Amino acid sequence: MHRLLAPAAGRARLEDLDLAGVTVADADLSGALVSGCRFTGATFVGVRFAEASILLSFLDRATFRTCDFTGATIHNSVFAGSLLEECLFSDCDIVQDSFLGIHAVRTVFNHSNLYGSRFIGALLSDVGMRDCNLTRARFDAAHRKGVDFRASNTNEASFLEALS
Amino acid sequence: MRFHSLFSSVGFSNGYLLGPDAGGEALLVDPGIFDAPLLQAIERNRLYVRFILVTHAHNAHINGIRTLLKVYDAAIYANQPSVLDFPAHQVREDDALTLGSFTIRVIETPGHSIDSLCFLAAGMLFTGDTLSAGEIGKTRDGYARGLLLATIRTKLLPLGDEVLVFPGHGPPTKIGIEKLYNPFLGEEL
Questions:
Q1: Is the pLDDT of residue B10 over 90?
Q2: Strands B13-19, B24-29: parallel, antiparallel or unpaired by DSSP?
Q3: Over the stretch B22-45, which tens digit does the pLDDT of each residue have?
């Protein structure tokens, strides 16, 4: 098992790395800069990404369990096909990210900006999306069970059941 | 390689800037806007925009060209002889362009528009409005839709699952992701 740990002092920087398939457990990457990285098929358990900046990175078909992204900035990144289980994405800036086909369970996005992000074909179960900006967000063909959209602008998002 | 994704809030479109690490001649895909963030990205990285690639000549993807050409002496590559009345190098299917330090393969993908192109460079596919995350381009009629779907299936999907897709709108994706999750690609022709 690979273990990635942030340096004791300073902001961890992960740039242009291919770490596909890596397993990361109980690491603290709070405040880290993750840019241009590939984590396809990776597994993250109990990892803290609080206040991190995740830019133009591919975290597709990965597994995230009990990970904390609170306050993170996540732009132009790809979580497609990933499992998000009991993760926190509260107070995040999640702009133009792909969550296509994700399976999110007991995961919270409350108070986040989800501008232009796509959850097409996702399976969302017991997911919190309260007080979110959903402008240009797409939930087409997504299966939603127990999703809490209270105080979010769902009128500015797309929820088409059938696409053709 | 320097790579920047640029968002235009005017047409909600993406543009992409590619240049060598050491600075020098850069190429810009779909300059939908020319604004301060783009200028800063170019200058901060000591780049000079020499080449403009146009996936299709809809306003959201070319509106920045006029201003850009006042600042940089750049050549335009498109599937038309001119763009916004500026002369362009008209490119065709399977053309291999050597632009600065980049080799670009041209793929014609009509459907969303008759002049639609995709550009493949360094494992990255710039798709304009042909294919985006979970979507395909809008089309005028059933014929164009069938043409677009057939083009995607025969020309783009075989490029390989790990090819990164940078579309004209929305987040990036991969060919393999679209095969799995794009609901349009299962449609009957």
A1: no
A2: antiparallel
A3: 999 999 999 999 999 999 999 999
- For residue A118, the chain B residues in CB contact (below 8 A) are 133-134, 170-171
Q: Which helix (DSSP H) or strand (DSSP E) does residue B63 occupy?
A: none
Q: What is the largest CA-CA distance in chain A?
A: 52
What is the rounded radius of gyration, in angstroms, for the C-alpha atoms of chain B? 16
Q: How confident is the model at residue B187 (pLDDT cuts 50, 70, 90)?
A: low
Helix, strand, coil % in chain A, rounded to nearest 5: 0, 35, 60
Q: For tokens 């900035």, name the residue.
A: A73
Q: Out of A56, A60, A100, whose CB is closest to B134? A: A100
What is the number of structural domains in chain B? 1
- Tell if the CB–CB gap between A96 and B171 is shorter than 8 Å: yes
- Enclosing H/E stretch for A27: none
At A35, list the tokens: 């840019």
Q: Residue A135 forms beta bridges with which residues?
A: none
Sequence-ordered alpha helix ranges (H) in chain B: 36-44, 59-62, 65-71, 142-151, 175-181
> Can you name the residues that pair with A45 across neighbouring β-strands?
A25, A65
Q: Is the pLDDT of residue A8 over 80?
A: no
User: Contact B47/B70 with Cβ under 8 angstroms?
Assistant: no
- Amino acid identity of B61? H
Strands B164-167 and B173-174: antiparallel
| ipTM summary value | 0.92
Q: Which of A78, A101, A117 is nearest residue B172 as measured by Cβ atoms? A: A78
Helix, strand, coil % over all residues of chain B, rounded to 5 = 25, 35, 40
Neighbours of A76 (CB within 10 A): 20
Which residues have a Cβ under 8 Å from the Cβ of A155 and sit 6 or more positions away? none
Is the pTM here over 0.90, yes or no?
A: yes
Q: Write the CATH number for B87.
A: 3.60.15.10
Domains, chain A, with CATH or none: 13-164 (2.160.20.80)
Residue A126, Ramachandran bin (φ over 0: left; ψ between -120 and 50: alpha; else beta):
left
Q: Give the range of the structural domain holding residue B62, as residue numbers without chain letter.
A: 2-186
CB contact under 8 A, A78 and B5: no
